Amino acid sequence: MKLNVKAASFAGGIMTAGMVLLMGILNLAFPPYGDAFLRLIASIYPGFKASGSFGDVIVGTFYGLVDGAVGGAILACLYNMFVPKTSSRT
């Protein structure tokens, strides 16, 4: 069975954006929480500084959405390349 590339892309984007958004909001509420994760994300996403501002959380969430969508699409395409083709017997 092959994966739907569009669905995997949406799922990957939503999951990654959700993680960055949740961690950013928790960091705003409890400032030391998630600093290491946010600094790691800041080292990958240009324009995201992990400064602890709400605008920064939005920028990181957008980058996470795009990054997760691309990653989900690549994963689904790679998976589909290795799935054996099934013959339809009737």
The main pleated sheet reads as: none
Structural category? mainly alpha
C-alpha Rg (nearest Å): 17 Å
Number of helices: 3
CA-CA gap between termini: 18 Å
- In which range does the helix fraction lie? over 70%
General form: elongated
Average of per-residue pLDDT values: 92
What's the number of extended β-strand segments? 0
Q: How much of the sequence is in beta strands?
A: under 5%
Oligomer: single chain
Question: Summary?
Answer:
The chain is built from three helices and no strands. It has 90 residues and is an all-alpha fold.
Structure notes:
The protein has helices spanning 5-29, 35-44, 54-82. The two termini are 18 Å apart. The chain has 90 residues and is an all-alpha fold. It has one domain. The protein is built from three helices and no strands.
Layout of SSEs?
Elements: H1 5-29, H2 35-44, H3 54-82
Question: What structural keywords apply?
Answer:
single chain; 90 residues; mainly alpha
